[in-house]
Specification:
The protein is α+β, with helices and mostly antiparallel strands and 149 residues long. Helices cover 34% and strands 27% of the residues. It is built from four helices and five strands, in the order βααβββαβα. α1 (15-28) crosses α2 (36-48). The model has no long low-confidence stretch (mean pLDDT 93).
């Protein structure tokens, strides 16, 4: 990976390209439908929330990866935990360690914030994602995600 890749907290001008990047993520996760206006609105809410953190990977002026984290209170852990979502590196840049850098930055941020646990979800059929997260010490849970719209 060249020096042209930078990992940093997202800035306001990154939000539109981040929303576009979600098209790739939601193509993998068949539970979701891509809606750029909805995703841009959500990213804007996260950007301005003091309970959320957004990181991007940039190559020159192009957003090529992203990850988000929100703060939750866990009764099990007795304090704040982080919920990691929207982890994606664009197809052209995968296999270069960018995802590792993004996730490491978010793990470091969670430690700085004093979170006692990190939680994330990955599509059941995405074996590569499961292996990736397990390499960082994430374990599978017996808890299944359910949602209601």
């Amino acid at each position: 990976m060249g020096d042209s890749i930078k990992i940093r907290k997202a800035q306001l001008h990154d939000l539109k390209p981040m929303a576009k990047l979600l098209r790739e993520l939601f193509a993998i996760e068949d539970d979701f439908t891509f809606d750029i206006e909805c995703h841009f609105k959500a990213l804007t809410l996260l950007f301005y929330s003091k309970e959320a953190t957004l990181y991007v990977a940039k190559n020159k002026n192009r957003v090529i990866g992203m990850v988000s984290m929100q703060s939750l209170v866990s009764t099990v852990m007795g304090g704040y935990v982080g919920l990691i979502e929207d982890m994606i590196v664009t197809h052209d840049f995968r296999g270069q360690g960018i995802g590792k850098q993004l996730l490491t930055a978010m793990i470091d941020e969670s430690k700085r914030l004093g979170y006692t646990r990190l939680t994330l979800a990955a599509h059941r059929g995405n074996d590569a994602a499961h292996s990736f997260y397990q390499s960082f010490g994430f374990d599978s849970s017996n808890m299944g995600l359910m949602y209601r719209i």
